[in-house]
Amino acid sequence: MTIRPRRSVLYMPGSNARAIEKARSLPADAIILDLEDAVAPDAKDMAAFAHVAPDAILVPKIQSAEQLEDVGARLLDTHADKRIHIWAMIETPLAVFNILSIAKAARDSESRLAGFVLGTNDLAKETRARLVPGRAPMVPWLMACVAAAHAYGIDALDGVYNDIGNAEGFVAECAQGRDMGFDGKTLIHPNQIEGCNAAFSPTPVEVEDARKIIAAFDLPENRGKGVVKLNGRMVERMHADIARRVVAIADAIEAAQSARA
C-alpha cells in the first residue's frame, strides 16, 4: 500500500520567491502556493502554472462536477503533464449540497480529482455560520465532505485555524479533524506544522497494535478467517485493513523524515 502523508499542508504566497525558497526547509507534508487571494489578478494564469508540473493544482470555488470536467479539459488542451492532479476547494453551500456528485468525478480519470480542501472561512462567510470553538455549526458539513471523499477514494483536508496565538485551540481542532477522518489540515503559519503533524501521525502504540493485528491475520491458520482473537479481544478482518493503512502511513512518514535528514 503506497500512501503519501498529507498531515500538514501549508499555504504560502505564490508570488513571494523568498517564501517559496523557505518552504523547501519546512517539515510540512505539502505546500500550497497561493495564487488566489495572495496574488494580484494580473499575475494569475493556470495554463502557465500547469507547465511547471506541480503535484496538483488546487482549484477554488468548485461547486459542481461539471466545473471539474472543464478544468480537466483545459489541462488536456494545454498538454499539461498527466500526473498533475486536481484538488477541489469546498467552500460554498452549493458545494456541500453537491458534494457526493463532486466526489464521484474522481472515477473519471480526466477530471484528475485527488482530494478536497475545506475552505471553512469562506464557508462561514457564505452561510453566516459562526466560527466557534468546536465548530458545532459546521460539523454536519465537514462530515459530509469527509464521507463523500472517502467513498470515492480521495483525500480530504480540514480547513485552516485562524487564531495563530491560540496553541491550545489549534491542537484541539487538529484532534477534532483527525477524529472526523480528515487526512490532514491546511495551515496558515509554519509554527502550526509541528502540532499538526503530531495530531495526524499514528502514535507508536497505534503502530505497534496495527502490526500485531496484521501479523495475526497473516498466520497460516488465520488467513481464511474473518475474525480472530488477539490479546483477549475479537478482531475482524476489516481491522486488518485499517491496520495496514496505519502502518503504511507510519512508514511513509518515517521515509519522508529520513529523506529530509
Note down, in words, how this protein is organized.
With 261 residues, the chain is of the alpha/beta class. It folds into two domains: 8-200, TIM Barrel; 204-260, no CATH class. 45% of the residues lie in helices and 16% in strands. It contains eleven helices and nine strands. The protein has helices at 17-23, 46-50, 65-77, 93-97, 99-104, 120-127, 139-151, 167-180, 193-200, 204-218, 237-260; strands at 8-13, 30-34, 56-59, 85-90, 113-118, 155-158, 184-187, 227-230, 233-236. Strands 2-1-7-6-5-4-3 form a seven-stranded parallel β-sheet. The chain has a two-stranded antiparallel sheet with strand order 8-9. Strand 3, helix 3 and strand 4 form a beta-alpha-beta unit. Helix 8 (167-180) packs parallel to helix 9 and helix 10 (204-218) packs across helix 11. The mean pLDDT is 91.
Notable features of this structure?
16% strand, globular, two-stranded antiparallel ribbon, TIM Barrel, single chain, 261 residues, alpha/beta
